[in-house]
Amino acid sequence: MRLKLSGPDYKDKDPMKSLVDFKQRVKAYESAYQKVGQWEEDNDLQYIQVCPLLLSPCVLHIHEF
């Protein structure tokens, strides 16, 4: 979270208010996106899962383009 909170959206802002805002944004994102899971794995669907707070995505079931 420190990396995100040091970005341009929160530059020169109160750190505690920035943290509250960021957590609210995460909740909004979660309500808008559908998680992938067991059904996709069981049906051998190709997908890329973005893992929270990691610098690279988790690539799952990608065989070829």
Descriptive notes:
With 65 residues, this protein is mostly helical. It has two domains: 33 residues; 30 residues, no CATH class. Helix content is 42%, strand content 9%. β1 and β2 form a beta hairpin. It is elongated and about 45 Å long. The termini are far apart. The model has no long low-confidence stretch (mean pLDDT 78).
Structural class: mainly alpha
Strand content bin: 5-15%
CA-CA gap between termini: 33 Å
Shape: elongated
- Work out the count of structural domains: 2
Oligomer: single chain
Task: Output the number of helix runs.
Answer: 3
Q: What is the typical, i.e. mean, pLDDT?
A: 78
Count of DSSP strands:
2
Poorly predicted segments: none
Q: How would you sum up the major sheet?
A: 2 strands, antiparallel
Q: Residue share in helices?
A: 40-55%
Q: Strand order, biggest sheet?
A: 1-2
The ordered string of helix (H) and strand (E) elements is: HHHEE
Radius of gyration: 16 Å
